[in-house]
Amino acid sequence: MFRILKQSTKSKARLGLLRTQHGVIHTPFFMPDATKAAVKSLSSDDLARLGLESMVVNTYHLYLQPGIEVIKKAPGVQAFMNWDKPLLSDSGGYQVFSLIHKNKNLGRITDEKVTFQSPVDGSKHDLTPEKSIQIQFDLGVDMMVCLDDCPPNDASEAIMLGAIERTIAWAKRCKIEYDKQVKKRKIKNRPMLFGVIQGGTSLELRRQCAEALTAIGFNGYGFGARHVDEGGKFLAKPLSYTADLIPEDKLRFGLGIGAPRDIIRAVKMGWDMFDCVIPTREARHGKLYIWKMENRKWKIDKKKNPFSIFHLPFSRRQWHETINITNAKFIKDFSPINPASKLPELRAYTKAYLHHLFKTQEPLALRLATLNNLEFYLDLMSNIQKAIKAGEL
After folding, report:
1. Where do the tRNA-guanine(15) transglycosylase-like domain residues begin and end (predicted)?
2. Does 275 participate in catalysis according to the annotation?
3. Nearest to 109 by CA among 127, 122, 133, 121
4. Closest CA to 274 of 255, 248, 259, 260
5. Whole-angstrom distance, CA of residue 37 vs CA of residue 90
6. Which of 160, 243, 271, 323 is buried most, with the most CB atoms less than 10 Å from its CB?
7. Cα within 13 Å of Cα(18), Cβ side
């Protein structure tokens, strides 16, 4: 399923190829969140034109609405959302745990299961490792994630140790249920299954969790919990240490890593895949990611190495910038949203017009901004792949 094509000699970055039932993915890669089986404001045709290879769907949200029975009749989430390329589903655990952490009256966590109250209609539900896997098989995705206990990074040592023990126990149950479902459904092309390594900022706890999960055996392993501390500082040491704990022939999933500079740093540590709401969510608030034009298309130049941005401090000013299109300075900016875009609408519409669309709350504003940011992220990943191939990352 996963094959490493090139290992960098300058860092731990790797170039790879992932084959799934619904297509091939080139690694390292980024997946936008199609939370409720849709990337907000975009159609499947929009995503195909961008060249997107994979997305993440949210097990928790799809289980609650429209419900798994509807998805099964489609049949499967790919058919339901008119997407014929690979999909990854999360376990649903992160959303349930976040719900309970915010309000303990909305649920209860035990070693057996998680009981929670639906924010949609108030109904009560149980989520077990087995049920999470069953739901993900019903979705019909190419990649799925084990249910894990995801405490905040600043949790006490006792809570963190308990979360690790629960994560390991649930991973075992997920693997058993996975094998049962493969046999029961007579599945030939098995979806990939990911274990999630917890442990907060403790290297020792990360090691304990990683060793137990790799002993169970999964197709890939994720970095559990947030990749930044409570102050927003990038957790470089835990991320690098955890990547080294994962077998070289397995995929390394940086869950929730989405800031451009953080993606680059994580790639250099050996992480292969990323997902985050940043490009789409910030687009809806008028924040656009813009390439410094001299760096948008990199070519090897012996006199001037354009890949050197990877070796410099990760300052936005050196290779990209972010702009808030709702600022007054764009009222009369008639330059294209992105003159180098492969999408005609981003070349044709101006920043002044996009500013106007946001101010008048026209839905087209969200679509154009989201297209811009996703194209930026896909260009970023493509250029990272080229840099690894050229031996410059």
Report:
1. 11-393
2. yes
3. 127
4. 255
5. 12
6. 271
7. 28
Half-sphere exposure of 41 (CA within 13 A, CB side): 21
Q: Contact at 8 Å (CB) between 174 and 222?
A: no
Q: What domains appear along the chain, each with residue ranges and CATH number?
A: 2-276 (3.20.20.105), 283-389 (no CATH)
User: Could you tell me which residues are beta bridge partners of residue 4?
Assistant: 16
The tens-digit pLDDT sequence of the chain (393 residues) is: 899 999 999 999 999 999 999 999 999 999 999 999 999 999 999 999 999 999 999 999 999 999 999 999 999 999 999 999 999 999 988 787 777 767 777 788 889 998 888 888 889 989 999 999 999 999 999 999 999 998 888 888 898 999 999 999 999 999 999 999 999 999 999 999 999 999 999 999 999 999 999 999 999 999 998 898 888 889 999 999 999 999 999 999 999 999 999 999 999 999 999 999 999 999 999 999 998 755 444 443 434 444 444 443 334 446 789 999 999 999 999 999 999 999 999 999 999 999 999 999 999 999 999 999 999 999 999 999 999 999 889
Q: Determine the Cα–Cα distance for residues 196 and 143; give it in Å rounded to an integer.
A: 13
What is the signed CA dihedral for 132, 133, 139, 140, rounded to 10 degrees? 170
- Distance CA(208)–CA(216), nearest Å, equals 13
Judge whether 243 and 264 are in contact, CB under 8 Å: no
The number of angstroms, rounded, from the C-alpha of 28 to the middle of its chain's C-alpha atoms is 12
301 is catalytic: no
The catalytically annotated residue of 90, 138, 149, 262 is 90
Whole-angstrom distance, CA of residue 186 vs CA of residue 184: 6
Sheet holding 14-20, edge to edge: 2-7, 14-20, 23-27
Strand 287-291 relative to strand 320-324: parallel, antiparallel, unpaired?
antiparallel
Residue 280, C-beta contacts closer than 8 angstroms, at least 6 positions apart: 32, 33, 39, 40, 370, 373, 374
| Ramachandran class of 33: left when φ > 0, alpha when ψ lies in -120 to 50, beta otherwise | beta
- Rounded to the nearest 10 degrees, the angle between the axes of helix 203-216 and helix 157-185 is 20
